[in-house]
Amino acid sequence: MKLFRILCGATIGAISATVLSWGGLYLFGMIRGSGSLFDTNPDAANRFFALWFALALLASIVGGLKASRC
Length: 70
What we know:
Radius of gyration: 15 Å
Oligomer: single chain
Number of helices: 3
Shape: elongated
Helix content: over 70%
Order of helices and strands: HHH
Strand content: under 5%
């Protein structure tokens, strides 16, 4: 049962990081207007996906640790 709690915490952390990353990208696109950020600057796509991966990894670890201590 404890493993299930840890997996749920890690999953919730990864989902929240994904919502935060993609929500921020969507809002940036709404404010910016013309064209996609990835079309105008291809290097931005690499940075975004690296940041998204790092944020999801960190949120998963924190979520799992927090769930294991409850």
